[in-house]
């Protein structure tokens, strides 16, 4: 059976206190005093204490900025070209760091047959998959796949591809590498979508190896569902000044209304019962999403403590985040784990893992 046998993660050098990011954002916001008070409350209630970035600009003096303009209003504001140049400079080193942390060195296990790269915060061709093959000295005839622009649930989608590969090839070893540099896409307009995304997202990378094994976290089954009537509630669009996140306030309500039925259907389709689930890995799209999920499932906040911890220490790192949670669960717990992620579509994705 296909199994996640190795997991590792990495974060960039620059660690930011949420309070420092709040000061930066308040300084850049041109809203009224009432707007700024509301923003302050949002940061206070975010459940986030620290986040990481590939740039130092969110915590340093204006004169020390390396990415944004040193002017008070950040003008000229970085173009999409400048943001993608920074992505190309920093994404690969962070991804390689995650690989190194996964295996303890860059001496990868022999016989890796496939590589899947995952990212929604930067794209180019040749892309991250080709760069990884070169940096890790993988065979140039290796099978490669890129999962792009799918957002926070993309890790589950990549694992689903790896599972299918392992089921079709007994000796397959699939390396999945995820890297997200969300902080490159800061937007300064006084819009609730931008304010929300600015307070949530951080940078990170993760890696895992999937192979047919009786060790690790065995993949028991998947289930996904699209809520097409809510497509406008969450989106990720390219503009001349970066990628624009659309994150409407009704998203937690949509999850609250649907998560219990979604989980029940996933369990039934995969021949599991709720009382067989010992661990829950819920993507922390925000503190409210975690709160309403725990309430709707009747599991209590302690049951998703790893999700709260990752949100607290790293923020939302898009596709990487679930691997940070699974790394903790793999290290400290055993039994069945229900994994759920949410993203544009609106899409709900799930995976059931079993650690023997």
Key phrases:
9-stranded mixed β-sheet, transferase, 10 helices, Type III polyketide synthase, two-stranded antiparallel ribbon, 356 residues, alpha+beta
Could you explain how this protein is built, in words?
37% of the residues lie in helices and 26% in strands. It has 356 residues and is α+β, with helices and mostly antiparallel strands. The chain has a 9-stranded mixed sheet, sandwiched between helices. A hairpin with a 3-residue loop joins strand 12 and strand 13 (347-355). Helix 7 (251-269) packs across helix 8 (287-297) and helix 9 (305-314) packs across helix 10 (321-332). This is Type III polyketide synthase.
As laid out across the biggest beta sheet, the strand order is 5-4-6-7-1-8-13-12-11
Instruction: Note the overall shape.
Output: globular
- Span of the ends, CA to CA: 12 Å
Please report which band the strand proportion falls in: under 5%, 5-15%, 15-25%, 25-35%, 35-45% or over 45%.
25-35%
The percent of residues in helical segments reads 25-40%
- Which sheet architecture does the biggest sheet show? 9 strands, mixed
In terms of structural class, how would the helical and strand content be classed? alpha+beta
Number of strands: 13
Number of helices: 10
The radius of gyration is 20 Å
Mean pLDDT: 94
Compact overview of the structure:
This is Type III polyketide synthase. The chain has 356 residues and is an alpha+beta fold.
Q: Layout of helices and strands, plus pairs?
A:
Elements: E1 2-10, E2 14-17, H1 18-28, H2 33-44, E3 50-53, H3 80-103, E4 114-119, H4 128-135, E5 143-148, H5 154-168, E6 173-181, H6 192-200, E7 203-212, E8 217-226, E9 234-239, E10 242-247, H7 251-269, E11 277-282, H8 287-297, H9 305-314, H10 321-332, E12 335-343, E13 347-355
Parallel strand pairs: 4-5, 4-6, 11-12
Antiparallel strand pairs: 1-7, 1-8, 2-3, 6-7, 8-13, 9-10, 12-13
Helix pairs in contact: 1-2, 3-4, 7-8, 9-10
